[in-house]
Amino acid sequence: MPTQPMTVRRRVLVVDDESSITRTLRASFLANGYDVRTAHDGVSALNVLEDWDPEVVVTDLTMPEMDGVELCKRIRSYSSIPIILLSVQDATSAKIRGLDAGADDYVTKPFSIDELLARVRGSLRRLDALRTSDSTSTEPKMLRTGDFSVNTLTRHVTVSEIEVKLTPREYDLLLFFLRNVDRVLTHSSIIQSIWGPHSTHQPEYLRVLVASLRKKIERDPNHPQYLLTDPWVGYRLNPNPED
Fold first, then answer.
1. pTM for the full model?
2. Using an 8 Å Cβ cutoff, are 142 and 151 in contact?
3. Residue 110's Cα: distance from chain center in Å?
4. Residue range 195-211: average pLDDT?
5. Beta strands in the chain (DSSP E)
6. At residue 117, what are phi and psi to the nearest 5 degrees?
7. Is residue 159 within 8 Å of residue 124, measured between CB atoms?
8. Confidence of residue 4 (pLDDT cuts 50, 70, 90)
9. How many Cβ atoms are within 10 Å of 238's Cβ, its own excluded?
């Protein structure tokens, strides 16, 4: 009788100081075929990361010892794995702090398990696409447009010859704009490009990500010159604001 191929279980690290949440999320991920480990704060999460290689990190924003923002910074210093933040804080400033620290996505508590599972699936699809594109891409190594220069292999970005450090999600957003220079891109087209064709993300998520990117590429984020808003429609990238 032929041996059935072994199914590879995708790996998720859950970090939260509320044991009831980690137990619930662990049970839900296990029931949906994931390999799961948990940690109660950022310090213990880094200890897990030393011995294990998760493909997605789901972490609370507010925790003792080391919070989710600092954990994101530590992970981003050496890895580009997807990070999803959980937070009871619904303010835009809190979300931007998390995205600035390196998070790719966020879910506001209370949330449904189905929503979180959908976000994780989306992150894994994006991770798989990135791995595939890195190995098969025929895109030129250097992408230069106006004041922007991007090395698509190393993901090194400069604006007016100044290096900027972008999170994976910010990088994807900028690259999408650079591939569509001077075109007005609708909210829905950008969301589908960044989060996938079946994304349930709302324009609010895009506004937070755009605000985060502007803080890194604009001289004055409150008066953007590169990433322009087309009211009620979407955004447009002008790579030569002085032209």
1. 0.62
2. yes
3. 20
4. 80
5. 11-15, 35-39, 56-60, 83-87, 105-108, 142-145, 148-151, 156-159, 162-164, 185-186, 227-230, 234-237
6. -60, -40
7. no
8. very low
9. 17
